[in-house]
Amino acid sequence: MKSKLVIGNWKMNKSFEEAEDLISDIQDKLESWSLQTAVVICPPFPYLELATDHADESDFEVGAQNCSEFENGAFTGEVSASMLAELDVNFCIVGHSERRKYFHESNDTIAKKIDQLMKQNLIPVFCCGELLEERKSGNHLEIVEKQITESLFHLSKEHFEQVVIAYEPVWAIGTGETATPEQAQEMHYFIRSLIEKKFGTETAYNCYILYGGSCNAKNALELLSQPDVDGGLIGGASLKSDEFISIIEAAETVLKED
Ligand code: PEP
């Protein structure tokens, strides 16, 4: 079995001091462990350097939560993929439902961001997922297929193999409502089949498909035990070190049981 991947998305939370405490706590807890699970934390931009400094001496990696679709230039407020690369950031979340909703990011914009990340050899964590009404009307598979096709399937096989996919049903993000393990497995299996059709079996097997949406210490073990769930993208539960570590523990348990 391939190893698991657990990514913490802090969103726009924590003061500098709180960020420092949380990173140190995570670092201390990971230190005493010989981990098989890969761990990534994605703090807000101003704390990235703090995080990469700690990551140098620890067993986690650092991701950003967004990047510009443009390479450089007069785009006030934007942060380019090359700036992230210079900070030794390795991952970048793109297409999160909060960015789709509040900043009107389209599948096409997200595709451009992914292209920028590819140029810098950064790993995109591409988020996809349906709205509640789309699930209720039975269109969830179709919606996710469209998101994946329009934002990822222009990539070469070689570039696609750098991408991590996070399935995040929008109705489960920050709501306390989680997809059932069966719903998660159904969608993850579907996503893997799409990849298999486009890029072949090996690429599909190797692709990391994470689940995100109110994943926490209590439900992580069941979700991460699903055969096509390769890890988690964790929002609220990544803001407390004990809770985040418990999710990593769940990933380790699944790996050991296999
Ligand atoms: C997220 O924002 O990516 C997320 C999964 O949030 P939460 O875990 O809080 O639902």
Explain how this protein is built.
By secondary structure, the chain is of the alpha/beta class. The protein has a single domain (5-257), classed as Aldolase class I (TIM Barrel, Alpha-Beta Barrel). The chain is 46% helix and 14% strand. It has 12 helices and 8 strands. The protein has helices at residues 16-31, 48-55, 81-86, 97-102, 107-119, 132-136, 140-152, 157-160, 181-199, 201-206, 220-224, 241-257, and strands spanning 5-9, 38-42, 60-64, 91-94, 123-128, 164-167, 209-212, 231-234. Strands 1-2-3-4-5-6-7-8 form an 8-stranded parallel barrel, surrounded by 5 helices. Helix 1 packs parallel to helix 2 and helix 5 (107-119) packs across helix 7 (140-152). The mean pLDDT is 96. Residues 9, 168, 173-174, 212-215, 233-237 line the site of phosphoenolpyruvate.
What is the approximate shape?
globular
- What class, by secondary structure content? alpha/beta
State the major sheet: 8 strands, parallel, barrel
Quaternary state of this entry equals single chain
Q: Which range best describes the helical content: under 10%, 10-25%, 25-40%, 40-55%, 55-70% or over 70%?
A: 40-55%
Ions, cofactors and other ligands present here are:
phosphoenolpyruvate
CATH C-level category: Alpha Beta
> From the 3D coordinates, which CATH architecture would you assign?
Alpha-Beta Barrel
Question: Which range does the strand content fall in?
Answer: 5-15%
The name of the CATH superfamily reads: Aldolase class I
Number of domains: 1
| Arrangement of strands in the largest sheet | 1-2-3-4-5-6-7-8
Number of helices: 12
Overall pLDDT: 96
* Overall radius of gyration: 17 Å
Number of strands: 8
| Amino-to-carboxy terminus distance | 7 Å
Low-confidence stretches: none
- The CATH topology: TIM Barrel
Write down the secondary-structure element order: EHEHEHEHHEHHHEHHEHEH
